[in-house]
Structure formats: structure tokens, C-alpha cells
UniProtKB/TrEMBL annotation:
A matching Pfam family: XdhC_CoxI
Domain XdhC- CoxI: 12-77
Domain XdhC Rossmann positions: 195-338
UniProt name for this protein: Xanthine and CO dehydrogenases maturation factor, XdhC/CoxF family
InterPro entries: MoCofactor_Util/Proc (IPR052698), NAD(P)-bd_dom_sf (IPR036291), XdhC_CoxI (IPR003777), XdhC_Rossmann_dom (IPR027051)
Naturally occurring in which organism (per UniProt): Desulfobacter postgatei 2ac9
SUPFAM superfamilies on file: NAD(P)-binding Rossmann-fold domains
């Protein structure tokens, strides 16, 4: 999926008005949590979602009303019985949603900042987007880069810069802060969850399509160019064709936002990839295959010195137990497991 940052940049460059809606606070049971975003166009077309139902419909209407000029607005929602009924879900919490409209002509400096933000996102770099909201509800954005450098028009309070240097704004969602009479919305640039698929066969093909639909940035690796190519994987962020799986992780940056799925065409290749994967900090490592295959590979790796406790952290056989048979069904079971692990990681960050 194209990120909302990249989509916003394209609209800014095209001179097309739009608005962004961001959940900046939530309590209790809500359909979406802080950090959820939605882009709204003049025709009420949207990208992203803040949860659907009556809340989202009302926010869309207000976003369109804001498109007469660039400004911002904050809306609070209590999900009472009336709203809950309209959403058809058992929510009982509250939401704070921040809306900001972008109406041309937009200053070139603002577009340059969004370009910088898109470039940082593409490279997986950290940054903070800090928006100062003035008394007249106009807004100006600045960036606090990883080394503490500030880019943008605004003079940011020293207390905010100090807090950024101490990594106080590294959570999954935006933070609303007041410094003196000024209001600031501070949004961490979160590195996207990345799915590394080793094996571009039938299951890998189906899994990559689901990764695109569920907001994973997907990297596909295989040793067969006829399988691993852009024609088969048009939405993959990267496609890698190797001479040998012994170099499967060369040049890859695997961190706690990485998910590894091993689906190669043979036991030996799976073992080779798994041995390398176990040396990473990936949030998830899963390997396809039977219990017999798992035991054989684990015995081989333990004979090479791999700790049993480390092997027990691998999801194998991979996927949820839904009696999947076809490649698409197996991919569904894997994706269900990935989504579950990702949600647990966001609820309990390490």
C-alpha cells in the first residue's frame, strides 16, 4: 500500500486540496487507536481509516468543510450507545481526532519538508514531525531529525527539543503537548512493519498479496528469477534474486519491526535461511513444513550449536491451525499469525 505521507506529497505537488485526520488520543474500547490516519479528498474519497461508522463519516464531512483554506481542528468523540449502534460494534471509549486541511497554493518550503519526510520514511529513518497550531488554527510543520537537527519554519521550544533528545516521543502514536500558549502535535515517523518472504513460490506469491493489503512492506527473496520478479510481485518493496541462500541476509537490516517467513523450495534451503534468521532481532520467524521436517532441521541446527531455547521461539509449523490446504489458504493462516504477533508487539513493546 502507498503510504499516506507519499500520497499527501503527490497531492501537494499536484495542487489538489485534501485533509488528514489523525487519532491523537484514545481511551477505553475504540475501533482504532492513536496514530490511525485517514486522508480525505474533496469528493469524500478516502485513503486509510480511523475506524469506520458514524465517527468516520462525521470526520469526513468536517474535513471537506475545512477545504476552503488551510487550517486545523480537533474533535472529541465519546462512543456512547447512539454512536456505538451506528458503528455496529461494542465500543465504549473515547477518541480525540486532529484534522488538518491543505489547500493550494502551498508554500514550497512545506512541500520540501513533506518530500524530506517521504524520503526518510522510504529509508526507514527516524524523525519527528512537529506541527505548531497557532491561535487562529493555522498550522506549520517542522521536522526533528535523528541527530537532533531541526528542519522547517518554526522555532521549537527548548523543552520540546530536550524531550525529543531523550526519546520521549517514540511511542506508536502522536503526542499532544502544550508549551506556554502554543499547542504542538508531535508525530513519530514509525518504520513500517517489514515482511521478509524467503521463497517466491505459490505460497509466497499469495502471502505477498496479503501483505500488501495488511500494511506490511514486503521484501521477496528467491534464487529463481523466473519466480522472483516484478511481474509476479508488483507491490513488493524489493525483490532479491540470489545465487545461493547462504547469502540470504547480506545487506538486509533486520530489526524489531521485521517479520521473517521461510518458504523456500527445499528443506536444505529452509535450514540455511533459518540458521541466519536466528541471528537477527526479528519480531517473528516462521518456517513452513511438517513436524517431521521441523525436528530434522532443529536437530541439525542444535548439532551446530544453536540453542534449543532459541529454536523454540520459531513459529513452526507456521500459521494458524485452520486446516489450510491450498496455497492461498496457507497464506491466510500465515497472515493471521503475523497480524496476531504484530498486534501483541504493539500492545507490549519491548
Amino acid at each position: 500500500m502507498r503510504s499516506l505521507i507519499r500520497e499527501s506529497l503527490d497531492l501537494l505537488n499536484d495542487g489538489t486540496p485534501f485533509a488528514l485526520a489523525v487519532i491523537i488520543g484514545h481511551k477505553g474500547s475504540t475501533p482504532r487507536t492513536s496514530g490511525s490516519k485517514m486522508l480525505v479528498r474533496p469528493n469524500k474519497g478516502i485513503s486509510g481509516s480511523i475506524g469506520g461508522g458514524l465517527v468516520e463519516a462525521e470526520v469526513i464531512d468536517v474535513c471537506v468543510d475545512l477545504l476552503d483554506r488551510s487550517r486545523s481542528k480537533t474533535m472529541d468523540f465519546n462512543l456512547n450507545q447512539e454512536i456505538k449502534a451506528g458503528m455496529d460494534m461494542g465500543c465504549g471509549g473515547s477518541l480525540t481526532v486532529w484534522l488538518r486541511s491543505f489547500v493550494p497554493p502551498c508554500p514550497s518550503e512545506q512541500i520540501e519538508l513533506w518530500q524530506t519526510l517521504a524520503d526518510l520514511e522510504a529509508k526507514g529513518k527516524k524523525a519527528l514531525a512537529v506541527t505548531r497550531i497557532a491561535a487562529d488554527k493555522t498550522a506549520e510543520i517542522s521536522l526533528v531529525l535523528e541527530q537532533g537537527e531541526v528542519a522547517g519554519p518554526g522555532m521549537l521550544p527548548k523543552a520540546l527539543i530536550d524531550a525529543a533528545g531523550e526519546n520521549r516521543f517514540t511511542g506508536p502514536g502522536p503526542v499532544r503537548q502544550f508549551y506556554g500558549l502554543d499547542e504542538f502535535i508531535i508525530e513519530p515517523l514509525i518504520r513500517p512493519d517489514r515482511l521478509f518472504i524467503f521463497g517466491a513460490g505459490h505460497v509466497g506469491f499469495q502471502l505477498a498479496k496479503m501483505a500488501h493489503l495488511t500494511d506490511f512492506s514486503c521484501v521477496v527473496t528467491d534464487d529463481r528469477a523466473e519466480f522472483a520478479n516484478e511481474a509476479r510481485f508488483p507491490h513488493a518493496a524489493e525483490i532479491r534474486v540470489l545465487d545461493d541462500f547462504s547469502s540470504a541476509f547480506d545487506g538486509l537490516d533486520i530489526d524489531g519491526n521485521a517479520y521473517i517467513v521461510i518458504l523456500t523450495r527445499g528443506h536444505l534451503h529452509d535450514q540455511t535461511v533459518l540458521e541466519q534468521a536466528l541471528k537477527t532481532d526479528a519480531a517473528y520467524i516462521g518456517m513452513i513444513g511438517s513436524k517431521k521436517k521441523k525436528k530434522q532441521i532443529y536437530d541439525n541446527l542444535m548439532a551446530k550449536g544453536v540453542a534449543q531455547a532459541r529454536l523454540e521461539q520459531v513459529y513452526a509449523p507456521i500459521g494458524l491451525k485452520i486446516k489450510a490446504e491450498t496455497p492461498a489458504e496457507i497464506a491466510v493462516s500465515i497472515m493471521g499469525e503475523l497480524i496476531s504477533v504484530r498486534a501483541e508487539n504493539k500492545e507490549n513493546p519491548s
